[in-house]
Amino acid sequence: MDGIKLVILILALGFLFLLAAKIYPATTPTLERFEGGIIRGPKDKKLIALEFTGGYFAEGAQVILDELKKHNAKASFFFIGDFFRNQEFKEIIERVVAEGHYLSPHSDKHPLYCSWEDRNKTLITKEAFMKDLEDNFKELEGFGVARKDVKYWIPPYEHYNREIVGWSNEMGLTLINYTPGTRSNADYTGEKDKNFRSAQEIWDSIIKKEREDPHGLNGFLFLLHVGAGPERTDKFHYRFGALLDYLQEKGYEFVRVDTLLEGKE
Length: 265
Known about the structure:
The chain has 265 residues and is of the alpha/beta class.
């Protein structure tokens, strides 16, 4: 009799579990992807991941770091190997680490992985791709960031295909990019470039996207550069603090990419 009661109890609990799952289904926030790479985080919370890439210039870095600290905000920095090797940038990198921001590769020598005309045409071998990234990791580890603690990275030129994503996965890495819809990624363009976008144009595109997207900027992977070089005098980093002010007033919080994409604190 006790055995029968136990079976009935187990069946009843199982039924209640299934009923609860149907009424209150578990929801996993979806990540937006393009060609297998992550381009936007969950849209259910007012969280933004600020991404900064760096190659050969860093004139905006101190202003950016000062504003992040002032606004109690975290960000993510992706540098090429030559950025890590440049002694002029040593203090910047050390500060990024010391202030708790995410630090990760942006490749070593910034090669173009796939054709601009045909994304499916890969221009680099798997061996060269992996060596390039590992060369960057050697420099990164010199700043106290262990290889095992790095998961997310941004490809050079923010240009990739599914093959590159697959090779990244084989290395235990997850390729991410930026969320389209604003012109923030054009803050590196020089006044003489055909694709030049002024700081005001960039600002306006961000405000427009925030107003018109049904989810605002929730889950945004927001790409900027730590430096544009001498060919651009209209530096967007001078407006970075005002941008943080504006978005914080809208209720947004700025977190690292790992926090945004997996809730890691």
